[in-house]
Amino acid sequence: MNAELFTSRATGELLPQGVLRVQSIFAERVHDLDTLGHLTRAAIALDMEDLKDECYKRMLQDHQMSPQEVKLFLQNVLGHL
What we know:
The structure is a single chain. 53% of the residues lie in helices and 0% in strands. By secondary structure, the chain is an all-alpha fold. The protein has one domain. Helix 2 (33-45) packs antiparallel against helix 3. The radius of gyration is 12 Å and the shape is globular. It starts with 21 loop residues before the first helix and ends in a 6-residue tail after the last helix.
């Protein structure tokens, strides 16, 4: 599987969690919009740019949300960081 590794936005280097792969997280853990929202907020807080980009893309494509809807949704996710 040719999946992306997690990289630091600041340095571009692989993060220690680099053994985790973006696609496998989605395949095994993300089954609904609420989970996707929590994962996106965590990716933002942890500066995991690859994961954040994938979450955002999936909200736009899979859930057919507009960029404004994504922003509003992330502000209202229960248990936000």
